[in-house]
Fold:
Amino acid sequence: MRYSTLAGGAKRAPPVMCVAACELFGLNRLAAFPTACALEMVCACSIPFSSSSAIEFIQEKKFGELAQCSAVCGGLLAGAEDEEVERLRRYGRAVGVLYQVVDDILKAKSESGDGAVEKGRGGKSYVGVYGVDKAMEKAEELRDEAKKELGGFEKYGEAVLPLYGFVDYAADRGFSVG
Structure:
């Protein structure tokens, strides 16, 4: 566990998202650290299992659930209103699934060499079921959905910007969505 958590290359997105959501509502980031550390440990210990053929993860059960939990935990720690927590829940799910869809697109394109990937080509992924073009459309929808949810936090000014950063990072790894 220690090795996985401290290993180079760990993305640390779940704990950072938790801290960013906590700060959005004005609470000091230190208040989120214990929960953020727990989220990182969950993420780190799930990595070896996520590619296991024995455990079939679908999009919403991969990073979608963890991102949703991360955003919601930050909001709950800071005393967000119920409506705000629900908005964070929808935002987190959209960002998490967006990250996974883009990850699947990048993997499929790198495996095909020329970027041409046919639908129906193995696996429980958007690319495997629908093909790259439909997966890219889904990624664009998810990006728009996540940003729409963040629009409800405009009253918090620049404090919402780190959460927008997760959307852009999830979408723009290796190609541009939207």
